[in-house]
Each structure stands twice: as C-alpha cells, then as structure tokens.
Design brief:
Layout (H helix, E strand, L loop, with lengths): L1 H10 L7 H5 L7 H25 L3 H28 L11 H13 L3 H30 L3 H39 L1
C-alpha cells in the first residue's frame, strides 16, 4: 500500500503531460506548457534532493540528494534561459495538479526518518524518474514544436536515466543492508 501511494505521488505531476489520456480529451501540448512542465519537474527534484541532503540517514543518499538538487537546478536554469531567449512564457496546464501532488509527496517524506525516509525517498526517485523518462519519450518529444526546446530536452534526457539508475543502485544497497540487519537479528 505504501509503495503504491508513493508511486502515485511520484507519477501524479506527470499526469498533466497527457491530458487526453486522463480526461478523454485529445488536447495537444504547446511549447509554453512543455517548458512549464519541464520547469516544474526540475523544481520538484531540487526540493526533494535538498530534503534528502538534509534528512537521509545514509551519507550516500545525502550525496545523491545534493547531486539531484545541483543537477536539476542547472537544468532548470537552462530551460528558463532558453524560454527567455525564445520569448516563451512557461504556462502550466489548465488542470495542473503537480504542485499539490508534489506538496503531498514532500509532506509524506518529511514525516519519515532514518532508513524509512531513505527507502521512501529512493522509491520516489525511481518512480519519478521513470515517469519523466516515459513522458519525455511518449508525450513531450513528439509534441515539441521548437527545435531548440527539443534539443534541450534531448540533451538532458540521459541525465534522468542516470539519476534513475543511481537511485536503483542505492535501493539495492539499502535492501542488502536491511537483509543483513534482519539475518543478524534472527
């Protein structure tokens, strides 16, 4: 139950990427909306990364959180600089729930401590990055009209994949540590 709730919270911000799939409408995304989605996803990762840097019990997870915050801050700025250059005003989707959903995810993570926080944070990161990768490939790239916006998204897409792999590797280490603690307690 806890895993599915965290996955839903991680995926919820990206549901705005495919309004037709959610509401039955066939509505195309414009570049201003895509830039807003891109900005919002990076802002969410800056906040969750900073939270992990401050709260994680593991040094490796604190360092991962710091890296996420740093990397996503840099990418967010690249997106904002490009939007300014192109004269595009980021415009969130009309029915954007991502801010509320991100706040709920942060509230949930803030309520956790120690290894429970570490596990939930990593689970959130894997689900979030997978959802972003899927959205980039199936929704964003096909909808982008501006070649410079498309080039930026294509340029940063591999970083989302790398972040997901890092989170998965950290999950394995946490699971191994958990297994070791359970076997020594037996």
């Amino acid at each position: 139950m806890r895993r599915s709730r965290l996955a839903a919270l991680a995926l919820a911000p990206l549901l705005i990427l495919a309004p037709g799939a959610v509401s039955g409408q066939d509505k195309a995304l414009d570049d201003a909306t895509i830039v807003a989605i891109f900005d919002g996803a990076n802002t969410a990762e800056i906040e969750t990364g900073a939270l992990a840097e401050a709260r994680a019990s593991s040094k490796a997870i604190r360092e991962f959180g710091a890296m996420l915050a740093r990397d996503h801050n840099m990418v967010r700025q690249q997106g904002r600089d490009l939007a300014a250059k192109l004269g595009v005003t980021p415009t969130p989707a009309k029915d954007d729930q991502s801010t509320k959903d991100h706040a709920a995810a942060m509230k949930r993570l803030r309520a956790l401590k120690g290894m429970e926080f570490d596990r939930a944070f990593l689970q959130h990161e894997v689900a979030f990055h997978q959802a972003v990768i899927d959205a980039i490939n199936t929704t964003l790239l096909p909808a982008i009209q501006n070649e410079e916006v498309k080039a930026l998204v294509e340029k940063v897409a591999p970083a989302f994949q790398a972040h997901m792999r890092m989170a998965q590797e950290l999950q394995k280490k946490v699971a191994s540590a958990d297994a070791g603690n359970h076997s020594s307690a037996s």
